[in-house]
Amino acid sequence: MNAETSDRADTAVPIQLQYPVDPNKSAFIRLTHRAEASASRANRDALRLCELRCLLFSLPSQFAERILHVPKTGRMSMERKEFLVKSALGVVGVTTGKMPIDGAGTLTDPTVPSRATRKILIAGGGFNTAWIREMARLSGKPRPRICYLPTASADSQSSTISFFKNCSSLNVEPFVQNSFIESLSQKQGWDEVLLSMDGIVVSGGNTLNQQAIWKAQGIDVVLREGWDRGIVLGGASAGSLCWFDEGTTDSRPKELTIVKCLGFIEGSHSPHYDAEAGRRPLYHKLIGEGTMQPGYACDNNAGIYFEETAVKRVLSERDGAKVYFVSVVDGKVVERVLEPERIS
After folding, report:
1. CA–CA dist 327, 286 (Å, integer)
2. Choice among 139, 179, 237, 251 that is catalytic
3. Is 87 a catalytic residue?
4. Which of 7, 93, 107, 307 is the most exposed place for a label (fewest CB within 10 A)?
5. Considering 33, 269, 272, 284, which one is annotated as catalytic?
6. Model pTM?
7. Active site residue 237
8. Residue 100: predicted pLDDT
9. Are residues 64 and 191 in the same domain?
10. Which residues contact 280 (CB under 8 A, 6 or more apart)?
């Protein structure tokens, strides 16, 4: 598979396709430039774009003899780069019987399952046994591992005890992961603990402090990965607010204010909508003046199940507890009631 490189500027430079000796192992198909030192920077960058990760179960020997050519001079267009990548991948698909490009032209690995459905279950206040039961059901596991994350309550022991009591009648394995820890006793990383769970219940408390601690510790990144993996996330109060772009909070002195959160769900949120007198008028004011995005307000004991980022179900465990979508229509703030189904 030797290839000669011409010194002429208008001559194409051959690229050799390498493949693993052991066809049963996952490996990179690397497009290596035989004369990279003499190639232009633009072309070297283009070649690096062509590093393709695929799994080859069976690769005919003649595959290595296939040669792509990239112009040695001039700027390569994005269309040309994409063409080269997809052409090479097409060869892989034809020769192995496994097409590693999906319908959108995205490189895929046939050994990796498609992403799990992302799930978030929130309540405006009071994430008790009924909500934990619903979280367990959404996990799809016969005896799910449910972890309590009480960062917002400063790892309150009383709230942790309440969580375990709420789990006592359910067929779940309850855990707690405190955030105020030290390395001598905390022997597992955040990812090792949280990503081993089937559901994560976030406590109420101070949302502003919760967000600061999560970001300082990298817990926010782990929660995002857990969401992408299909771990059911949820909670009430600070445990519902945290998943949105923003919302109203009592985390600062003197008055309710705005807090910016993880942004897993687009828009805003107001918990305790019927329980705290200042919540509704402030939420209306902020949305009406354009300071805050439209969003979802939840009474205590009412909430929403989001699948991906869309409302899948509206739930309530108490008569009269409701959920609202609050937005501006024709210059006026409008509350649209989302009628809930009853859970217990």
Report:
1. 10
2. 237
3. no
4. 7
5. 272
6. 0.69
7. yes
8. 47
9. no
10. 270, 273, 297
